[in-house]
Design a protein that fits this description.
With about 400 residues, the protein is mainly alpha-helical. It has one domain. α1 runs antiparallel to α2, α11 packs antiparallel against α12 and α18 packs antiparallel against α20. The two termini are about 35 Å apart.
Length: about 400
């Protein structure tokens, strides 16, 4: 029944999300719970999710981010940024997504999405969405301050900077595959009617960077969590309004950007995660009859895919692998971490993927289809290397 409920929940998410992403996530979570848990436990998980201050605050922050994007579009700040980043269109799209990746924060994909939309004239929505998701996460893979990487390396008693060195080849392959399957299809040219203006470039950049910067500083100095994210996006919104040369109609912008959809997506995703954590699904996946390394790679990828997280699968997979082999070498660590990470990158319950789909009006199925080829090739290479070094 656990396997049946799990598969039905995923199918439900993919089916209903064609009409409504938040509804699909919520229905998928409830079906997983009803097939695998008692009604009182499901109700407890629902209440726990809806009353968790950190989740509620994060949902509010996710609702404000599209409003920030809307004010930057309406004020002309996005136009100014695109007009003064003087690089070819394909690299502008990748740069915009990677910029937010270098300053990681929940929902950062929503900050880069309006830039891709403006600079991607003539580029299909599904391609822009895919570039946003792929390049957004490229640099986080090797970001030494990533909490997921720090925790995973600590589990395996590996220095995080040594882990980064072993992750660099995977990063290089992912960069190449991103160019081959995504950026190479962008052939447009941007026309710049005006002269370059440093001020017109810096103002929107400061607004965009302010949100993740405040988020990062408050988390590191004051150990805040979702409160930091909320204050960060509110700072960005305040700066956008302050620097706007036009009178902004916030009510009209809010209605147009539909922030409630993004807030409900976060609630739906955490509800799925909370229910998944108390089912036996993770244990069943980790108990598949495979050699230790192949089990770690396959189960790690699957758990990353179904949870939309890195730390949760890592906390399951690395201890299971350690119990079988006693020690994890840096090379094996990198292979397993990449498998988990790219399961997470293309997960249908991954925050950045689903909010990007919502923004560009692309279905989850279409997005996963676009990212499937580079991900499959990357995983095949990981498995081949694992067979050699394992």
């Amino acid at each position: 029944m656990t396997w049946l409920g799990f598969l039905i929940s995923l199918a439900t998410i993919l089916l209903i999300s064609k009409k409504s992403l938040p509804l699909g996530l919520i229905c998928g979570a409830l079906l997983l719970g009803f097939f695998t848990l008692s009604p009182d436990i499901v109700l407890d998980r629902v209440i726990l999710t809806l009353t968790d201050p950190s989740i509620v605050l994060l949902s509010l922050a996710m609702g404000i981010i599209p409003i920030l994007g809307g004010t930057m579009k309406a004020s002309g700040q996005i136009d100014s940024l695109v007009a003064n980043v003087r690089i070819p269109q394909r690299y502008l799209l990748a740069f915009s997504a990677a910029l937010m990746g270098l300053l990681p924060m929940p929902g950062g994909a929503l900050l880069s999405a309006p830039i891709l939309e403006k600079g991607g004239a003539g580029v299909p929505g599904k391609l822009m969405a895919s570039i946003n998701n792929w390049f957004r996460h490229l640099f986080i893979l090797i970001y030494p301050l990533s909490s997921a990487l720090i925790v995973s390396a600590e589990l395996c008693d590996i220095d995080v900077y040594r882990a980064v060195i072993y992750l660099l080849p995977g990063f290089a392959v992912a960069l190449f595959l991103g160019y081959l399957f995504l950026l190479r299809r962008v052939n447009g040219r941007l026309v710049y009617p005006n002269q370059f203006s440093l001020k017109e470039l810096l103002v929107p950049l400061v607004i965009i960077i302010s949100a993740p910067a405040v988020d990062f500083i408050l988390k590191k100095l004051f150990h805040l969590n979702s409160e930091a994210t909320l204050l960060g996006v509110l700072t960005g919104l305040a700066l956008s309004i302050f620097f706007s040369r036009k009178r902004l109609d916030l009510k009209t912008i809010t209605i147009k950007m539909k922030p409630w959809n993004f807030a409900l997506i976060i609630l739906g995703m955490f509800l799925y995660l909370r229910i998944f954590q108390v089912t036996e699904t993770g244990t069943l996946i980790a108990a598949l009859p495979l050699p230790p390394l192949m089990l770690a790679l396959s189960a790690g990828f699957i758990l990353g895919l179904v949870t939309g997280r890195v730390q949760l699968p890592a906390s399951i997979i690395f201890p299971v692998y350690l119990a079988a082999v006693s020690v994890v070498t840096p090379a094996i660590f990198a292979l397993i971490y990449i498998a988990i990470y790219y399961g997470y990158v293309i997960s249908p319950v991954h925050p950045c993927l689903v909010v990007t789909c919502e923004y560009f009006g692309v279905s989850i199925k279409t997005m996963i289809g676009e990212l499937a080829r580079p991900t499959v090739i990357l995983m095949v290479l990981v498995i081949i290397i694992a067979l050699i070094v394992g």
